[in-house]
Amino acid sequence: MEHAIIARTPGTADVLEWSEIDILPPGPGEVLVRHTAVGLNFIDTYFRSGLYPWPSHTLIPGGEAAGVIEAVGAGVTGLNPGDRVAYTTPNGACSTARVLPADRLVALPGTIPDEIAASVMLKGLTAHYLIHSSHAVQPGQTVLVHAAAGGVGLLLGQWLAAKGVRAIGTAGGPDKVALALAHGYETVIDYRADEFATQVLHATGGQGVDCVYDSVGRDTWRGSLKCLRKRGMLVSFGQSSGTLDDFRMSDLATGSFSANRPVLFDYISDSQELRSRADALFSAISEGVLTPRIGQSYALCDTAKAHRALEARQTTGATVLIP
Question: Do the first three CATH levels of 2-121+265-322 and 139-261 match, i.e. the same topology?
Fold first, then answer.
């Protein structure tokens, strides 16, 4: 019998249950994957709490995973039982096995361990589209990244440094500051000790930054705008502190700023684009441009504990759940 983490109603991490589930054989165009590792992300808490709409009357959280193909349905080509694969979807990964459309899977190179793959499919592809599409960085630019010691933040710091971009980060506490500094950031501001906007302007000689990558939301967006140089870009790609309920377009007029609110799945909805971005991500890891950091791991059945730790800001880097 297979198992999954299930929520039957929105709420705190207490609503998550370890339950038996039934899995049907893969149909045409589908693949059955046995999970070996599952990644944890803040978006999982958004769905669980009800901040994001539920996909059905019950929820299986989890947006990224790696595993081994056990069976393929009719019409599937290029994927076979025994192949190692990984994927990212909005939900459904917190299970021991799962049936998925074949075009949502990417084959894993031998150089990428399962745990690393599970930790970067959502976070790494997010980092890729942020700096290549949402605001395509150029050498010599300066950017600010909030939550620099988180899973996406640590990948961004390394990738930006490799591209010749000056990265300034924010993090909470001296340990997280030190961690971010070791992953490509030139300057990291402890937002618990300092008002970050003032420090960013000081670090840039009053010029501000070309772009702010902000996954925090309510607590940071006003300060983020203060950090921008004229005609700079705010990329708001998350809201770990809450939504930007009082944001107005007129707030951008203070510096002719631009802003966008991208979502990963709009950048990988096409299977060819998904595989192109995944190839670039895996190449960056294999070549040593990126060194993904798994900060902590939990048994899949302890997903509720992992959610609590993530929401309490007690984690660094990526969190992996092991079935």
Answer: no
Task: With CA atoms as reference, report the closest residue to 106 among 127, 125, 133, 128.
Answer: 125
If one looks up domain 2-121+265-322 in CATH, what number appears?
3.90.180.10
Four-point Cα dihedral 193, 124, 61, 150, nearest 10: -10
Average pLDDT, integer, range 59-85: 97
Enter the pTM of the model.
Answer: 0.93
Contact 168, 189 (CB under 8 A): yes
Take residue 103 and report the two structure tokens written for it. Answer: 């075009």
Question: Do 298 and 62 touch, CB atoms closer than 8 A?
Answer: no
Place of tokens 């950017």: 143
Q: Quick one: CATH architecture of 139-261?
A: 3-Layer(aba) Sandwich (3.40)
CA distance 95 to 92: 7
Q: Domain residues of the chain, as ranges?
A: 2-121+265-322, 139-261
Return the HEC string of the chain.
CEEEEEECCCCCHHHEEEEEECCCCCCCCEEEEEEEEEEECHHHHHHHHCCCCCCCCCECCCCEEEEEEEEECCCCCCCCCCCEEEEECCCCCCECEEEEEHHHCEECCCCCCHHHHHHHHHHHHHHHHHHHHHCCCCCCCEEEECCCCEHHHHHHHHHHHHCCCEEEEEECCHHHHHHHHCCCCCEEEECCCCCHHHHHHHHCCCCCEEEEEECCCCCCHHHHHHHEEEEEEEEECCCCCCCCCCCCHHHHHHCCCEEECCCHHHCCCCHHHHHHHHHHHHHHHHCCCCCCCEEEEEEHHHHHHHHHHHHCCCCCEEEEEEC
pLDDT digits (tens, 9 = 90+) for 110-158: 999 999 999 999 999 999 999 999 999 999 999 999 999 999 999 999 9
Q: Rounded to an integer, what distance in angstroms lies between the CA atom of residue 299 and that of residue 291?
A: 23
> What is the per-residue pLDDT across 260-309, written as a single tens digit (0 to 9) for each?
999 999 999 999 999 999 999 999 999 999 999 999 999 999 999 999 99
